[in-house]
Amino acid sequence: MFNDIILIDGEKRKTPSEEKNVSKSDEVKLRIYGCQLLQEAAIILKLKAVTVATSQVLFHRFYFKKSLTDFDVKMIAPASLYLACKLEEDFCRVYKIINTFYFLYKYEDLKSKHYYFDVKNVKVEHFKIDVESQEYKNMKVDIYTYELLILKEMGFLIHKINQHPHLFLLPYIHSLFNNLNKFDDDLTKKLAQISWGYLNDSMRTTLCCEYQPRCIAVASIFLAAYKLNIPLIKSTNWFKLFDVEYDDIKKICIRILQLYKIGRCHYIDVLTKKKEALKK
C-alpha cells in the first residue's frame, strides 16, 4: 500500500507546471503559498491537524497531475480542504470554508497595498462574503467542481493520501528515548513538540510525494534532536530500527531547512506572468 505514496523519483521527472514553462522557483513558492493558506484556514476553522495534513497532500498530489497555469492555487486550496474535511470526518460547511478563504485573500490584498492595521483586531467577520453575490456562487461551484476533479486525479484511491508522518512520530520517539534514564520526560516532550513542528513545515514541500511517511518522521526527529543537542550518531545505525536510510534522512533535512531560507510566500499569477514573457 505504501508504494503508492511515492509519486516522483527525485529530480528526474518534470512536473506539469514545468512542462508549461513555470519556473521551478515559482512552483515551489506557489506550493508553499497554497499550504500556508490551508494551514491558516484550518486554524481559523479549528480543524484537526490530520485534516490539514490530508488537504496539503491532496494539494501537492493534484499539481503533479495538473499545471498551475491551468488551475489556480486559490481555488484548488479550498477544494482540497473541503475534500479533506470529508475524508477525515471533520465536518465543516462549505460556506465557512468559502468565507475563511475570502477573508484570507482580502487580508493578503490589504497587506500587499501597505494598508496597516492591528492584526489582533482583525477577524473573519470583518471580511464576510455576501452569500447572494455572484462571487460566492462561483466559489461554491468551483469548490464542488474541483473537489471531484481532485478525487478523479487521485484515482479515487484515498489510501494514498491518508498516511501521514505524524502517525509515526510519537511511537518512534518512544522507541528511541523512553527507556533511557538520561532523557527525562520534559526533554522527550520538547523533542516531540519540535519534531511535530518540523513535520508540519515539511508538509509545505513535496516530500510527502517523494518519501515514505516514516522517513519524514525520522528526519524530523533527527532535526529536533540536533537542535536539542541530543546525540543520534550515525555509527549506531539507530535509523535502521525504522527501516530508513541515512542518506534519505539527510536529503529530507536539507529540504526542510531550505524552507526557512525561502520564508513566507505570496501569490504569483503564473498565467499572467507567462503571457507577459511571451510578449517580450
TrEMBL record:
Coiled-coil features, chain-numbered ranges: none
UniProt keyword terms in alphabetical order: Cyclin
Keyword Zinc-finger: no
This protein's record includes keyword Signal: no
GO biological process: regulation of transcription by RNA polymerase II
GO molecular function: cyclin-dependent protein serine/threonine kinase regulator activity
Domain (Cyclin-like): residue spans on this chain: 36-152, 174-258
InterPro entries found in the cross-reference section: Cyclin-like_dom, Cyclin-like_sf, Cyclin/Ssn8, Cyclin_N
Similarity comment: family membership: Belongs to the cyclin family.
Protein name per its UniProtKB record: Cyclin, putative
Gene: CYC4
